[in-house]
Specification:
The protein has 170 residues and is an alpha+beta fold. The chain has one domain (2-161): 2-Layer Sandwich (Alpha-Beta Plaits). The chain has four helices and ten strands. The strands form three sheets. Strands 1, 2, 3, 4, 5 and 10 form a six-stranded antiparallel beta sheet that branches. A hairpin with a 4-residue loop joins strand 8 and strand 9. Helix 3 (122-131) packs across helix 4. The longest helix has 14 residues, at 15-28. The protein starts with a strand and ends in a 9-residue tail after the last strand. The structure holds adenosine-5'-triphosphate and 2-amino-6-hydroxymethyl-7,8-dihydro-3H-pteridin-4-one. Residues 9, 43-47, 54, 56, 89, 95, 123 line the site of 2-amino-6-hydroxymethyl-7,8-dihydro-3H-pteridin-4-one. Its EC number is 2.7.6.3.
């Protein structure tokens, strides 16, 4: 069985509902078993500032799907949940990115894994660090804990734990 890490993000309300829907659809897929769910973080938008804050989280899943078939499932879920690609890095109901797939380095026309920008993104590394601190990213040959430590002091302020009733910590 293959192990994949998938990042989820939403900054169009209802944000939590969009995350829940994506998780439900992944769980319903017969070739995907969600093994771990990170906490949810509320995060400042990166790349295109003039948009609302995101909810971000990361899942660990076992799957018999190959990487491109897993991407198909992720993109179908994005479509089903009304994702529109209008502004690069802009607002979205839901975004699903494949962060890692086993310890493979994958480069095809449709897919780069590990995700090429993940090691600089607090909105990815904070939740990934919660569920997989010892994961080694094949692209840079570094542990997630080390990557998170490198950016935590500069970018840690842009992410905070989120809870439904608004009492999330720092
Ligand atoms: N690891 C990956 N996970 C998901 N999509 C990927 C990956 N690598 C390449 N892609 C490609 O990226 C394309 C653009 O994806 P998308 O529009 O969701 O980008 P984005 O999420 O806005 O930006 P970013 O990739 O920086 O997070 C997709 O069509 C997909 O083929
Ligand atoms: N905070 C945050 N910023 C982003 C996000 C995201 O999920 N969270 N996704 C982006 C493109 O994938 C660009 N910027």
């Amino acid at each position: 069985m293959n192990v994949a890490y998938i990042a989820l993000g939403s900054n169009i309300e209802p944000r939590k509902f969009h995350l829940d829907q994506a998780i439900t659809r992944l769980r319903q897929h017969q070739a995907i078993a969600v093994k771990k769910q990170s906490p949810i973080y509320e995060t400042k938008p990166v790349g295109y500032a003039d948009q609302g804050d995101f909810l971000n989280m990361v899942l660990e899943a076992e799957t018999s799907l190959d990487p491109e078939a897993l991407l198909d499932v992720c993109q179908q879920i994005e479509q089903d949940l009304g994702r529109k690609r209008i502004i690069p890095n802009g607002p979205r109901t839901i975004d699903l990115d494949i962060l890692a797939y086993n310890h493979e380095n994958i480069k095809t026309d449709r897919l780069i894994v590990p995700h090429p920008r993940m090691h600089e993104r607090a909105f990815v590394l904070a939740p990934l660090h919660d569920i997989a601190p010892n994961l080694i990213l094949a692209s840079v040959d570094k542990r997630v804990a080390e990557l998170w430590k490198q950016i935590e002091s500069s970018s840690g302020k842009d992410v905070s734990l989120w809870t439904q009733n608004g009492s999330g910590g720092e």
